[in-house]
Design goal:
With 381 residues, the chain is α/β, with parallel strands linked by helices. It folds into three domains: 75 residues; 35 residues, no CATH class; 205 residues, TIM Barrel (Alpha-Beta Barrel). Helices cover 48% and strands 8% of the residues. The strands form two sheets. Strands 1, 2, 3, 6, 7 and 8 form a six-stranded parallel beta sheet that branches. Strands 4-5 form a two-stranded parallel ribbon. Helix 1 packs across helix 2 and helix 2 packs antiparallel against helix 3. The longest helix has 74 residues. The radius of gyration is 35 Å and the shape is elongated. It starts with a helix and ends in a 20-residue tail after the last strand. Bound molecules: zinc ion (ZN). Zinc ion binds next to loops.
């Protein structure tokens, strides 16, 4: 009985103790949660307080660097000229009675002896700059870029100065845009963009059906350079022998002559002069070209439009801008192919970017440096 009572008391104590323990545990849990919460606030707060200032300082350092560059440029000779030209131009535009001659005079006064064109024709170089030939090997058309070294010294001058055109300073570098494998369904659009921008380019064409004949004619009539690129563009046929090589070029040039009234005297090897698809040593074909006074041109810049499908117009332009910045004279390889629509989509952006950065865009002519992966002079006359 006593024991029983004692047992009962003991049970009661145990029950109360259990309740107390439960209360303590709940309290402890709540406290732990609070501690965890404060810990998190402290850790995150610390991270924000340290990382944010670091990033802010890095950003500000970057901005300061940029501004310093701008300031240096503004204080340099070119920058002064540029700013003065801009203000002269703005003053002219603000004054409706001003004559364009006034603007030209003010430009001349700023530039001193520099040459100023009053019409839209470009200032040209003396045209006798010679480049050492590149030796880079190329496996496939468009897979590699030859680099030229020791190019002609840059010649500072101002081109295309008109009251209408924005004032741009040339960087003394020349870019030759070339389109291979046309005519195609995109030739018309490419020609339209070039025309709208008053830019002349070079088309290395192949033989096509009558429905494309009008494009050969437009290329020539609109002042572009037309070049040969084989009739078939089938490597094993074209490069089968020296005879097949000669036959295709003659057939193509006859077609061009019949349609346009002019013959072409320039050529681009399908796959480049350093291709590994021709049956004979490339010197055999070069020998034929030399005998027939046909100059051939490879490239030292390329967009990659035919190498990888799916490059955005901006990426194509970035590829080209990266290449042309490394040469005084750049021959840019692009394609006028049924399958490469990004070429025409990127063309306006390319022209805008080249002009903005001061490049002169020219068609290939007799003054263009012979940019060749395998040099013509490796063949004895
Ligand atoms: Zn080609």
């Amino acid at each position: 009985m006593y024991e029983a009572c004692g047992n009962a008391n003991t049970m009661g104590n145990i029950k109360r103790t259990g309740e107390n323990m439960a209360k303590i545990t709940r309290a402890q849990l709540a406290q732990r949660k609070r501690i965890e919460f404060y810990k998190k606030i402290i850790v995150y707060g610390f991270l924000v307080m340290t990382i944010l200032p670091i990033f802010t300082s890095l950003f500000l350092f970057y901005k300061v660097g940029q501004l310093e560059k701008k300031l240096d440029y503004a204080l340099s000779e070119q920058g002064r000229d540029y700013l003065t030209l801009q203000s002269s131009r703005n003053a002219l535009l603000d004054n409706p009675n001003a004559q364009s001659g006034v603007f030209v005079e003010s430009v001349k006064s700023v530039l001193g002896n520099a040459e100023v064109n009053t019409n839209s024709t470009k200032s040209t170089e003396d045209g006798t700059t010679e480049l050492p030939l590149a030796n880079t090997s190329v496996d496939n058309e468009g897979d590699n870029v030859a680099t030229t070294e020791g190019a002609a010294k840059a010649n500072e001058e101002l081109a295309d100065v008109t009251p209408e055109a924005s004032v741009a300073q040339t960087n003394g570098k020349r870019v030759y845009l070339t389109f291979d494998d046309g005519p195609s369904i995109y030739t018309g659009q490419i020609l339209d963009v070039l025309k709208a921008n008053n830019v002349k380019a070079t088309f290395f064409v192949i033989g096509r059906d009558e429905e494309f004949y009008s494009y050969y004619k437009r290329i020539v009539d609109e002042g572009h350079t037309i070049g040969l690129h084989s009739y078939s563009h089938v490597y094993q046929d074209f490069y089968a022998s020296k005879e097949s090589f000669a036959e295709e070029l003659t057939k193509l040039n006859d077609l061009i002559y019949n349609v346009t009234g002019t013959k072409s005297s320039i050529f681009r090897f399908p796959g480049g002069s350093s291709n590994n698809v021709s049956s004979l040593p490339v010197q055999e074909y070069i020998d034929y070209l030399n005998d027939n006074d046909i100059d051939y041109y490879d490239w030292n810049s390329l967009s990659g439009d035919a190498v990888t499908n799916g490059l955005s117009p901006q990426q194509l332009v970035n590829n080209i801008m990266n290449d042309v910045s490394q040469n005084e004279d750049s021959i840019v390889l692009m394609h006028d192919l049924q399958t490469t629509h990004t070429t025409v989509e990127s063309l306006q952006l390319l022209i805008d970017t080249l002009k903005r950065d001061g490049y002169e865009i020219l068609p290939i002519d007799e003054n263009t440096p012979l940019i060749q992966h395998v040099a013509a002079e490796t063949v004895e006359e």
